[in-house]
Design goal:
3-stranded antiparallel sheet; 0% helix; globular; mainly beta; single chain; 83 residues; 41% strand
């Protein structure tokens, strides 16, 4: 199983997002038959500092998950990952 195609506001590696609550999406590639996602956890970082940890959420959703962390600052670079 591999998490791929991470997107923010429907864009891959966007720069200059100007929304206070961007949405996250991803796909999962697997050769396992009848597989489905049972849950996810999203981490958003600015450098080494975590600005949002969604915690483990039981859900099959992989699209349009809204950011719910601290206010994002302009001219700052953020990265995110999902587990």
């Amino acid at each position: 199983m591999t998490v791929t195609d991470l997107r923010t506001e429907n864009k891959v590696n966007p720069l200059g997002i100007d929304t206070l609550a961007p949405v996250f999406s991803w796909r999962v590639e697997t050769e396992e038959r009848n597989w489905y996602q049972k849950g996810y956890r999203i981490l958003v970082r600015q450098g080494t500092r975590v600005v949002w940890d969604s915690g483990y959420t039981q859900s099959r959703r992989m699209n349009q998950i809204p950011y719910e962390g601290e206010t994002l600052m302009p001219d700052c670079r953020y990265v995110w990952e999902t587990e």
